[in-house]
Amino acid sequence: MKVVVAVAGGIAAYKAASLVRELGRAGAEVRVVMTRAAQHFVGPATFAGLTGHPVVTSLWDHPGEVHVELGRWADAIVVAPATMDLMAKAAAGLGDDPVLATLSCARGPVFFAPAMHWRMWGRPATQRVVATLAADGAHLVGPERGALASGESGEGRMSEPEAIAAAVVAHLQGPRDLAGRTVVVSAGPTHEDLDPVRFLGNRSTGRMGFALAASAARRGARAILVSGPSALPTPPGVERIDVRSARAMQAAIGQHVGDADAVIMAAAVADYRPAEEAPSKIAKTAGPRTLELVRNPDILAELGAARSGAHPVLVGFALETEDAAARARAKLQRKRCDLVVANLAADGFGGEENLVTLVDAAGDHPLPRRSKAAVADAILDRVVALLGQSGPREG
């Protein structure tokens, strides 16, 4: 989980330090951005010490578009404390300080933890602002009724950091609807060695498969990730098996498919490999060279042919340069899959986002462009439904 904590200028700003600590304890990586007013209450050095990262306090002190980078980086942004002034500006779409500019670039959910005097909170104008933010998809945590900085008591007190952190974490972790299930995910490219220094491969980064494994683990599954060569870090809670070639991937998946409730073949497995691997580096010659290739095993087709009934649920991918949905429908039938995820290489290959169509027996289901983490959750929503239809695994 990657969370930006945005601190506005209210007396409750001191509680944001505890919020940062609570999010860290929950396993989140945290960055902090502050308004100028917030720095009158708590210094940036406090948050830099807690997070181990510089605090963004100005749009002018950082190279590049730091607000764009933070908005793209964060899985969620939480504004705590959220003052009346800041919420009104956010609802109006303003972006003249680092917090507002970061909110305007958010790709994930945004949480506001209001903190203000009870009269401010009760004003019709404030409630219109709250309604606008909610209509735009924002989440509110609090405020609570209790003692206020003025010495009075009423509704307007910021929720405690533990409650705010719990709301953010629960939203990001989502349901535990795969608890007790085993999900095997393949990811990345395969490298088919030509000689000790050269190989045949492709441009897959593995991001989609890693996002699927991460989401499955968050949702309670035993997530087994069989990855081709990739520099991506292992997601929390995921069992990772590193392989190189298509045949090595086939063997690793074969060791776990018997325990699997679902197998998701997100890897870009090479269709061919060199007929022979040279024992030493092949020398360059003056003329052309012919390379003989042989077919690699079709892992997805073999899984479809070998499975018993509807177990395990089988998901394939169809990465194409044209006619992605049509080719996915053909693959669905030919390889006996339950679901095929279709996309064009130009729409997500190697990037942070993806534009896909889910193809199953019921038809084509296009999804809007979204982050690969969000695509992973949409795929797993369908896997959960298919698991419910197929019943428990036998044995």
Mean pLDDT: 90
- Based on secondary structure, the structural category is alpha/beta
CATH architecture label name of the largest domain = 3-Layer(aba) Sandwich
DSSP strand count = 21
Strand proportion:
15-25%
List low-pLDDT spans.
none
Per the CATH scheme, the topology name of the largest domain is Rossmann fold
* N-to-C span: 35 Å
CATH superfamily of the largest domain: CoaB-like
Biggest sheet: strands, sense, closure? 8 strands, mixed
User: Into how many domains do the coordinates divide?
Assistant: 2
In terms of quaternary structure, the protein is single chain
- Helix run count: 13
The radius of gyration over CA amounts to 25 Å
Strand order within the widest beta sheet? 12-11-8-13-16-17-19-20
Inertia-based shape: elongated
Summarize the amount of helix as a percent range: 25-40%
- CATH classification class of the largest domain: Alpha Beta
Description:
With 395 residues, this protein is of the alpha/beta class. It folds into two domains: 2-173, Flavin prenyltransferase-like (Rossmann fold, 3-Layer(aba) Sandwich), CATH 3.40.50.1950; 182-390, Rossmann fold. 34% of the residues lie in helices and 23% in strands. It contains 13 helices and 21 strands. β9 and β10 form a beta hairpin. The two termini are 35 Å apart. The model has no long low-confidence stretch (mean pLDDT 90).
